[in-house]
Amino acid sequence: MLIDFMLPVYNRLEYTKMSIPSILANKFDFRLTVINDGSTEPGIKEYLRKVANRDKRVNLIENERNLGLSTNTNRFWSKIAKAEFVGKFDNDAIIPPNCVESLYKFITKADKVGIVGSFPFPKTWGKRWTLSDMGGGMQGVAVKFIGGIGYIMRKKLTELYPIPKEGTKMWGWTNWQRRVSNKHKVIIAYAYPLIPIIHLCWLRRDMEEKLYQSYNGWSQSHRPKNRAKQAKIIYEKGRLKLVQKGGVITL
Predict the structure, then answer these.
(1) pLDDT at 251 over 60
(2) What is the CA radius of gyration of the chain?
(3) Can you list the alpha helix ranges (DSSP code H) found in 90-160?
(4) Measured between alpha carbons, how far is 22 from 237 in angstroms, rounded to an integer?
(5) Suppose 77 and one of 42, 44, 48, 158 were both cysteines; which one would form an S-S bond, judging by CB atoms 3.0 to 4.6 Å apart?
(6) Do residues 45 and 83 share a domain?
(7) Which domain holds residue 228?
(8) How far apart are CA 210 and CA 194, in angstroms?
């Protein structure tokens, strides 16, 4: 096993049913630890158990109550993950079929990089980036921190510090990265060429705005936003659709 991934889940069954299959469509040597963090939404416990029974790469952990991201991450890092590389995906993200392999190939060649992320910002995918040497003949976009939507990193970094718990002054993934980067000179980067990932929450907002604009004859202050909010987002044959009574918005 080359990579240990964590996928924290708290409700959002609609998104989870799109996210997990997209991750498992990556044909690569990894284990996916799915943490049901005390979900209360009907059907989600049964769905996760079904997935775990169907795919031997899935390790399901069920928390009786919600423990929060920091506690789950620290437990995953210290007690569950065994591979040389560890990572995380969010359950509101769709992962391209080559994402895991691309992240792994980049970090194993780019010997200067400690953390590498997939890129969730579709509006800037075509931007001209300032590239830096990442070692091993690889180039990347150096950043102060990356989002937690989809990344991998060297497991030895998890031994430096735990992620502070929610509610403390410096809690969270972003502050943990800043501390590791500043004190230990760890390079954090997006791989280049960019490895795209679809963040459903952000994308839904963009698609809803596109849907608002489609309602001709409504003033800016009276567009039927609730109608779009009630629409259902689906992922089908590699395309995202926002489905509502008046039609379908496709990305």
Answers:
(1) no
(2) 19
(3) 99-109
(4) 11
(5) 158
(6) yes
(7) 200-250
(8) 25
